Amino acid sequence: MATAHRMTSLSGFRRRQESIRLLLCAAFALLCAAAVTGWPAQVSVSVFALPLFVASYLLGPRRLPWYVVGLLGVELVVIASLGDVDARMGVSTAVLFALALMVLLTSFRRSQLGVTGLRGESMLVDLRDRILSQGMLPALPSEWYAETALRSAGGTPFAGDFVVASRPGNGRRLELVVVDVSGKGEDAGTRSLLLSGAFSGLLNALPPGEFLPAANDYLIRQNWDEGFATAIHLSLDLVSGDFALRAAGHPPAVQRCAGSGRWTVHPSEGGTVLGVLEDADFPAVTGRLRKGDALLLYTDGLVENRNRDIAMGIDRLQGQGERLLRNGIDDGARRLIDKLGSRNDDRALLLVHRR
């Protein structure tokens, strides 16, 4: 009962807020009308564009169309009261009507979501921040260092690449997944919003060997037109350094061995991309991180472009990694991702190092 009462009070508060915003917008429109009527030589009818744009951000999709119609009606009344309509005033009125039409079309699109402009944008920003928070790495023992770096196509705030991290098993294991959703930039951003939350839940709830099969089943059930993704899953024992890698159509991980100074490419054996085949198998590749070793997981945007195949890109990654990481591991992922990959594709890089 108390919860229902709080919900009712919150709903009433929001309705009162919307009514106050409507009254403020109406007062602004009347103020503009008074200014045009009182000083027609100094104030043009184009001033009505100001309350139009203010209302487009403050009013909800149910009230905004009625406000726009009322505002245009007030403008026509003001023009009629002025009597003499010249060509300049006619052009200003036509432009205002065109702007009002665009605002109405935008309002009809927003009505599918049911929120105002500012609130809808804040929701998208919040969802984007949730994607990034899913990839925040948990606190690790002092002998381990891990870092992620993400870059989106064209610098847009939404990307199709993301990282999911977890530390189950009483903190002994570190589970990390790098995912590349089909598409890039904003086109893949909506799918990333959904998949990051789902994959985070699966990663925390399932044993390592069951994560990719469950993620594959989840994607198939979505029945998207572009419903596939690649992924690589690292399950790392923080005590022994033993790890298992499972890939789904994803570029292979590379490991730098501190003892020999050599780089090892761990092959991605047999795993198909997620969301294509039912009952797909994702075999594990095992290894061990010893003192000083580093492991890199990445998406294809970092190593592949139109003029270079993925094998050459992996070679370049190893070369750049050797030069940059020689100066220190800290901030290595950011330095590497800024040096490599196409700026027209999403890129993600995950660096794990045993000190």
Automatic annotation (TrEMBL):
Give one Pfam family.
SpoIIE
Q: Which SUPFAM superfamilies match?
A: PP2C-like (SSF81606)
Would the keyword Hydrolase turn up in this protein's UniProt record? Answer: yes
Its domain of life?
Bacteria
Sorted alphabetically, the keyword list is: Hydrolase, Membrane, Transmembrane, Transmembrane helix
Q: Does the keyword Transmembrane apply?
A: yes
Please report the stretch or stretches of sequence annotated as the PPM-type phosphatase domain.
140-354
Give the stretches traversing the membrane: 64-82, 89-108
Query: What's the protein name?
Result: PPM-type phosphatase domain-containing protein
- Tell me which species this is from: Nocardioides phosphati
